[in-house]
TrEMBL record:
Keyword Ligase: no
InterPro entries linked: PG_synth_SpoVB, Poly_Biosynth_Transport, Polysacc_synth, Spore_V_B
Transmembrane segments: 38-61, 82-107, 119-138, 159-178, 184-204, 246-267, 279-300, 321-340, 352-369, 381-404, 410-435, 447-465, 477-499
Source species, domain of life: Bacteria
Membrane topology summary: Multi-pass membrane protein
Record-given protein name: Stage V sporulation protein B
Major subcellular location class: membrane
Pfam families noted in UniProt: Polysacc_synt
GO annotation, cellular component aspect: plasma membrane
Origin species: Neobacillus vireti LMG 21834
Keywords recorded for this protein, A-Z: Cell membrane, Membrane, Transmembrane, Transmembrane helix
Amino acid sequence: MSKFLKGTFILLIAGLITRVLGFIYRIVLARSIGEEGVGLYMMAYPTFILVVTITQLGLPVAISKNIAEAEARGDYAEIKKILVVSLATTISLSIILTPAIILLAPILATTLFTDPRTYYPLIAIAPAIPIIAVSSVLRGYFQGRQNMRPSAVSQILEQIVRITLIAVMTKAFLPYGVQYAAAAAMAASVLGELLSLVYLMTTFKLKKRFPLRKNFFQFAQKGKKTFQDLMEIALPTMGSRMIGSVAWFFEPIVVAHSLALAGVLAVNGTKQYGLLTGYAMPLLMLPSFVTFSLATSLVPAISEANSRNNHKLIAYRLQQALRLTFLTGGLAVIVLYVLADPLMQLMYGSTKGSYFIRLMAPFFLFFYYQGPLQAVLQALNLARAAMINSLIGAVVKTAVIFSLASQDSFGITGAALGIIVGFVLVTILHFATVLKKVTFPFYVGDYIKGFLVMGASGWLGYWLFENILLSEHLLVRVLTSITGMGISYLVMLLLFGLIKKDEIHRIPWIGKLF
């Protein structure tokens, strides 16, 4: 079994576990602090992502790519130099950004977010910055060596700590005010990051092939060429993520001001934004663990193939990733669309936000494609093109949100439509850019068959939920419907030849059953 498939499978399993745990976290969070608390948390969270993006400087992808190439040459001195330079860079940035976020928090809360209560969740972000600075470098190192297990385990540990602490911490701080509970939720995430870092450092110490601390500063001083090589990939990559992070940072600000123009009070605007981004969006993004796994594995796999000028392997890996994205994303879309109301009722005790799921789910196939396509662009040294595509999408998204959300007839629905327009546009631009570099066959017939399978499975799931009343319990009806959709979907994929038998045989454990 190839390193690419093995690494992808490990990340898929870890991603599934992580997303399920993350969803449990969201459910506990929503039930603990309510719509308003989730709104405060989600207003501060984009700032957290923006700070993380600046701290990482796009280095995880650059580290992964350069280490994969260095290991292919057997150049372990260069691998050490990559690690030393990366750590020195990210730690230096964290020393600047940690006090900066503390000083800027009052201005951000009162001026930009229009809700002073966001100050407390913003302050809780600061301790995470140096932790993420180191852990991101270590993840990039392991991914570059196509060893996905440490990254996978660290993600699971992080989520377990968050879930364990969230209920206790929010309950302890909620009597003092919902803003303190939202800050406690953010602090639980920071502690999860800390345990994840401890695990990564321990694993690195046990499996490293060279002493990292020996001559650390000498390697850092002599790493100018290494730094330049890393920045060639890191800066455009950071540019893409920075654009997305800045757009997400301004998103709650634009939404808040747009809703104010539409006559919506600040408190109600916070609640509505919480429903969209804290309730509906996590459910819609749940299946993206598949695309994240593919994207993470694609960078070193395609970088290695590209360094050997193996264009046939590049096209094969890309085709493989896109087909898997389509098939897994298709099942996710029909489950979310058909069962939007019952899923929201089960998870949050309310169907509020299900409208957003039905509106956005059909378009999320484009979002699922975005990760693998961007990974291919980065691996082929087209990170700059990916950055430009992301910039265009971010500008258009922000403009659509402002123009629609500020109108009474759209309100918060305008924000949802703007988000859809943004990621659909970026995905189309990424795909067009990849086609300029990589030639591969596009099987239209397979996609038509795929859409037919989605429609048939979705209809069956709806019929099962409405007619097969095996129990009065909503959970049993939902599980019956999902099981029916899943089995029928898999059977029809096999019948139509959309999943090949030889691919099933390559999957660990499952292949042995066949």
